[in-house]
Amino acid sequence: MGLKGVGGKSGSPEHSWPQRQKAQSGRTGMTDALGLRDKKVLVFGGTRKIGKAVALGYAQAGAEVTVTGRDGATGDTTVAELEASGCKAHFVDCDITSYESVAAAVARAIEKMGGLDVAIQNASGRTKVAQGFRPFSEIAPDEIAGYAQTHWVAKAYCVKAVLEPMRERGGGKIIVITSDSGKFPTVGESLIGGSAAAAHVMVRTLAKEFARWKINVNSVAITITDTGDWNNMIQSGAGANPQFAAKMFEKLAKRQIIHVEGRHVADAAVFLGSAMSDAITGQVLSVNGGVAT
Q: Rounded to an integer, what distance in angstroms lies between the CA atom of residue 12 and that of residue 194?
């Protein structure tokens, strides 16, 4: 249930929330209501797939956006697309499995933008454990800690690194993108679900801790999401048991009432970073197309 990122039209300008609203109403009222114009936004893992869709959503809402990633060429391409939306955009290299790298990336982003208002933690680190469906019985003991490091601890690193700059700024919004399998157990996703559940509890706890500093903390929990390369997603997520993975993909696809694309996740992330969510904190918002209700 928690598999992320299978790409296509996701994140393209014509699908963004503000652009769709403008086309429907002929006004820019929705964009203005979001209150994101000129806000400083950092998207960890913002150069590809869901992260890129989120970055585009913020760019089209008028924010200045910095994206992080591991590939400079991909980062430059993403920045060009963001700038085509009319916003200022930047790329900084970041390995989220290293706190030193994360802290340095946050510092560079703030130097480029002059501040930080919203941070979206979308990235996961590299791991030898396949991100697809895989029975726990087939996972080696020495793989377990590595997965927790890349899919939960790395998220905590990103939150920790943005905390002090937001405190100094007088507030902010933090959004952690996780897996819906942390809320609804799915066979074959013990490590994905366990890491996501840890992130969900962290978000709820930090919402209470950070409230004194006017920092809202929320999560978007996702499942199978179309970002344009379904076949590659299945292959990369199959691990050592492609038949098992394919069977689980098929079951989940049948249960998904609404086809979820990257733009839907972006809409949720933009909402939670906007002025429209000022009274919302400590929540885990599922964007799962009705797979679980």
A: 32
The Cα–Cα gap between 41 and 110 comes to 9
Pick the more confident residue, 12 or 209: 209
- Most confidently modeled range among 22-26, 179-183, 184-188, 195-199: 195-199
Q: 204-233 pLDDT, tens per residue?
A: 999 999 999 999 999 999 887 777 665 555
Backbone angles phi, psi at 98, to 5 degrees: -115, 120
* DSSP state string for 207-224: HHHHGGGTEEEEEEEE-S
Return the pLDDT at 11. 40
What does the alpha-carbon distance between residue 155 and residue 97 come to, in Å, rounded to a whole number? Answer: 9
Q: Which two tokens stand for residue 185?
A: 């157990």
Report how far apart, in Å, the C-alpha atoms of 66 and of each of 46, 48, 90, 146 are. Answer: 8, 13, 5, 28
Which residue's structure tokens are 């979206």? 120
Average confidence (pLDDT) over 144-148: 88
Average pLDDT over residues 175-184: 92
Q: Going by C-beta distance under 8 Å and a sequence separation of 6 or more, which residues neighbour residue 202?
A: 152, 155, 156, 159, 176
Residue type, 193: G
DSSP string across 81-101: HHHHTTS-EEEEE--TT-HHH
For residue 131, which phi and psi values (nearest 5 degrees)? -80, 0
Helix, strand, or coil here: 205?
Answer: helix
pLDDT band at 185 (very low <50, low <70, confident <90, very high): confident
Q: What is the pTM of this model?
A: 0.84
Question: DSSP 3-state assignment of 29?
Answer: helix
Interatomic CA distance for residues 85 and 119, integer angstroms: 20
Per-position b or e across 193-220, b if 16+ CB within 10 A of its CB: bbbbbbbbebbbebbeebeeeebbbbbb
